[in-house]
Design a protein that fits this description.
The chain is an alpha/beta fold. The protein has one domain: 3-Layer(aba) Sandwich (Collagenase (Catalytic Domain)). Helices cover 53% and strands 20% of the residues. A four-stranded mixed beta sheet has the order 1-2-4-3, sandwiched between helices.
Length: 147
């Protein structure tokens, strides 16, 4: 089972792909699940808005849309991310682009794990779990570099 990264309609390069793959697997395993096939598709605002219209009947820009194909404990799906919207959000939240991208990437995984964000209570839980996952990223960087 694998995590794959695809680029569509934009110019973008994700560095340290193996570190991301390891991090995503660790987050999934921390939730007592098994990583299946997960594809990230990095794309444009226009493409993501069209997906939002076509599949969710929402006519607005968003940073991430997740299609869940999980079965039981095997976590699989497609996670579409608008790199343009991540850049915009990073500016709004005064956050580093890389940190905002990691948050959005793991947000999609958390949706695959069954975590919602439709209510205030769910959004609070989602943010807590995103922060825990970002902490795992930092831990993984330290372990990877031998620090």
């Amino acid at each position: 089972m694998a995590v794959r990264f695809h680029i569509s309609e934009i110019h973008f390069h994700l560095k340290n792909k193996n570190l991301y793959k390891s991090w995503i697997r660790n987050v999934i395993e921390a939730h007592n699940k098994i990583q299946g096939e997960i594809s990230y598709i990095f794309t444009s605002n226009t493409a993501l808005r069209e997906l939002n219209r076509s599949y969710l009947n929402h006519d607005y820009f968003t940073d991430v849309i997740t299609f869940d194909y999980s079965e039981g404990n095997l976590i699989s799906g497609d996670i579409f991310i608008s790199i343009e919207q991540v850049e915009i959000n990073a500016g709004i939240y005064k956050e580093d682009f890389g940190e905002e991208l990691k948050r959005v990437m793991i947000h999609g995984v958390l949706h695959l794990l069954g975590i919602g964000d439709g209510t205030d209570v769910e959004r609070k839980r989602m943010r807590k779990l995103e922060n825990e996952a970002l902490h795992l990223w930092l831990k993984g960087i330290k372990n990877d570099s031998g620090i």
